[in-house]
Amino acid sequence: MKEEKSFTITQYRANFGSLITGLLCLYNVFTSWGDNWYLVVIFSAGVIICGTFAFYDIKRVLQERQPRG
């Protein structure tokens, strides 16, 4: 049971890890807005990069779930 649960968590992390990271970067952009512009720039780049990875990861997962034929 524990091994099965660990596999599921690992699978979700592989598929949606970049989405979570991109959302956390977006949260940090909002919280540091106006206080530290260097962090805003770095986290904004993180939103763009991780968001792009997340888009293609989700696209790949949806294509794998579709039946072929």
Explain this structure.
This protein has 69 residues and is mainly α. It has one domain. It has 2 helices and no strands. α1 runs antiparallel to α2. The model has no long low-confidence stretch (mean pLDDT 86).
- What is the alpha-carbon Rg in Å? 16 Å
Shape by Cα distribution: elongated
Number of helices: 2
Series of secondary-structure elements, N-terminal to C-terminal: HH
List keywords for this structure.
single chain; elongated
Topology:
Layout: H1 2-31, H2 37-65
Helix pairs in contact: 1-2
Brief summary:
By secondary structure, the chain is an all-alpha fold.
